[in-house]
Amino acid sequence: MGSSRSSLRGVPDGQQLLQETGFSAALLLRLHQRFQFLDKDSRGHLRSEDLEAELSENPIGDRIVGAFFQPGQETVDFPSFVRVLAHFRPTEKNWTRDGVQPEPANSRNRKLKFAFQLYDQDRDGKISRTELLQVDTTNTYTVKSKLSMKPLNTTC
Amino acid sequence: MNYSSTKRALAVLITCTFLSLPHGCNGESPHKPNAGATILPPTKPDNGPQAYPEDVPSNLPVFTMDYPRIQIPFEITLWMLLASFAKIGFHVYHKITIWVPESCLFISIGLIVGAIMHSVHEEPPAALSSNVFFLYMLPPIVLDSGYFLPTRPFFENVGTVLWFAVVGTLWNSIGIGMSLFAICHIEAFGVQDINLQENLLFAAIISAVDPVAVLNVFEDISVNEQLYIVVFGECLFSDAVTVVLYNMFSFVAEMEVVEPEDVFLGVARFFVVGLGGMGFGVLFGFVAAFTTRFTSRVREIEPLFIFMFSYLAYLVAELFSISSIMAIVCCALTMKYYVEENVSQRSCTTIRHVVKMLGSISETLIFFFLGVVTITTDHEWNWGYILFTLLFTFLWRGLGVLVLTQIINPFRTIPFNMKDQFGLAYGGLRGAISFALAFTLPDSIGRKQLFVTATIAVILFTVFLQGISIRPLIEFINVRRTNRDIESINVEIHSRLMEHTMAGVEDLCGQWSHFYWKDKFMKFNNRILRRVLIRDSRAESSIVALYKKLELQNAMEILDTVSGDISAAAPSLVSLEQEKKESAKPKKTFMAQDLKNMHNLLSKNMYKIRQRTVAFTSKYALPNDNQPREILIRRHASIRRSLRPGSFQSTIPNSQKYFSLPTGQSLGSKYPSARPSYADDHETMSEVAYPTRRSRFSQPKRSSSGAMMPLHRLGTLKEVPSTDFLNESQGESFGKVHSKPRTGSSHSDSRFPAHRRHFDPPVDNNNGSADDVRNEDEAEEEQQRQHRGALRPPPSWAAEPRDDTPRNPLLRQPQWNPKK
Lengths: 156, 820
Description:
The complex is a heterodimer of chains A (156) and B (820). By secondary structure, chain A is mainly alpha-helical. Chain A is built from eight helices and two strands; from the N terminus they run αααβααβααα. Chain A has a two-stranded antiparallel ribbon. Chain A has helices spanning 2-7, 14-21, 25-38, 48-54, 61-68, 78-85, 108-119, 129-139; strands at 45-47, 75-77. Chain B is an all-alpha fold. Helices cover 63% and strands 0% of the residues of chain B. Chain B starts with a helix and ends in a 36-residue tail after the last helix. In chain B, 40% of the residues are buried. The model of chain B is unreliable at 1-13, 15-46, 608-625, 647-809 and 811-820 (pLDDT under 50). At the A-B interface, α3, α5 and α8 of A face α19, α21 and α29 of B.
């Protein structure tokens, strides 16, 4: 695929990302364009505000944004962006665990870890009671401002 | 064991078949003289002009019979009764229905009745004329399917469903038609006169899938929902497609030459028909939903709107010759969501029940008539043609599923594996639609009888063979089962989280896909549609709705195991399927003490649920105001009873356990209904725990009813100090735990802690919001207070106030010494 490979020149670490994440070249390109669109000041990296602007209506928007940023980091650059998104590719069945390569991003384990991070906000590796409770409360909001309904704490 | 009842059932069946004879006799023409002891006026011989054509009868007729007048409704009723008796009969020995699908059984009974009728040379009723079938018998079946279509899996798989239905049916028809045309050229079979158009027409008829039997099997063994919904959806939409194809091909069959532009027009017509049907359906659905917004005063006729609008959608679609099946399905789909929020609980139950009933009886009747007609029509049998038809049916279905799955699998998140594909292919039974369409073939087609025979052969073969064998096969190959049957709040919350995540990530990627559209639609729905179509459009979280449903189900389960059958009580929450399953379970018996405890438990829980739901929807408004009071009385009585010395002592250790829970966690008290095993011991415990939460807000309203439990929580909850307000009982807000009732108390102070707030919802066990709620309630209470006289606690009971609370000198607080 000569043409797309050459057009990947604009993408930082294009080749490596292709291999690592398993995205197709066209998809990677599209993601790069999207990255550039989100990155309004063309800084080369995204801050959380850029992402949050897209997710303003999502009840768990802040968590999703948080999942993109490594702890302590304020910005996310394109490779990290793509790596996180790689979790969402469909699982391939014929990947066998041979221990040589690192687990691809879209394996079941990695997906589960990603989902775990959504709950585990303080990244201590455990989901505490308060964190679970927070999930409950966020999820029982339907229409945010229109209702004066209090969050219902349901225990499971 | 079951033999006596089986025999009885058989006897009933046989008498019914004989009952069918008389009206069979009258099926040909009304025989007035046969009808009985009618005393007719004597007719004079025609000798000349007569002033009076008839004489006045000499006596008053005492007993007359006028059969022809009632003939038609009578016969209809008898046939329906006969079919229903057959249905009862089968379920008497319920193992039969597991292994043999109901459709087979009905066809068999139909065959028997047909044989009887044939032997006395009677004609079967003209139930299969085009009008009767398509206007009266088909709509209920389709409405039933459409109304109970599981919408969420459907929309997640809508592409696949439509793909299989439309393209699959086309593939089948054209494939079978072409191959049959090919073999028509073989001289040995003697069917050369069938041209291509007729072959295609016939192929269209038998490619309509009707997997009713298969769906029942799938439900019973809980196959994965992708497979289920694709089979279900394919059935629905392939009916529509088949009818369209049939109309097209029958039109074409009468033309001598087919031009290319006719093909093009055919395709265009296809789209018009399909999309037009959908459009009409959605339109009528919205109109119906809108109408139910205003029916709060006329609850009795609410179900009528549903049926009338669906039927209207069907008829209007028939008027314009567009797909009426699509119309009625889309109408039911759109309507259901909004209507079920607007109508009362009873109307909801009625609607569901009637839809199921009508669907069931229609289906029964159709298969029944299939059996009858099989015997009584003139058949034209042609070994070659019919066998090849069967062969090609299977062949093309299998090929079709294979090819289509290969094409669509890359687009699916959860691809179909080989087992799913096998289930899909093997589940392609033929049924009612094919049957009816075969009968409505125009007579201009030369070999109509052959087609009819072939259709019946295919239907019988697939229904019997595949219907009976599918269950063992599916279990043998171990098709992937579903795990969505677990309904719990947990599942709901976490799947909701995942969906939000998916929608969010899609937003980030800028990709408009499945979740994105769903999200958009939900927003549109909340903002606009619900406002317009629902009476009080307070958006209710589906989690809350699920919670209510689960609580009620739990409560009903307790009721069920205690006393008989719940179908009277919890109507629309318990589906008919569940009812069947539950009635098949052996009923547990409980000891008297457990029973009593369960009753107490139940009364508390039922009461709690109603209170909770008041805040969210007005649909659950309490019928009268006396109810909370009455409930309180009951509660007091039960508390009093349970706090007798004997029972109390034994529960102290247990209750201690609960007091050691960390802040705000009153887990045990919250859902006792979900844990009936706790009933015996912890029932009293939970009573102990309950009021500590509730009594934050309340003081007893009734004087003579039992005690508030002045137990305290060990500093776990923030509590307003108990006794201060008791002094100023008049104008104060009470947020309190400690009421200090006392038997025959000497204080004649009528302002004594006589207030019990009714338990306002919602009750959280989170401290932060508890305070808010409490404050709110306190504000409310001030307006609603009524107070009664002094309370009378149980004599033996003693409660210990917290040590640090200032004691009210007026109160003589009983001492409670917990046994440690």
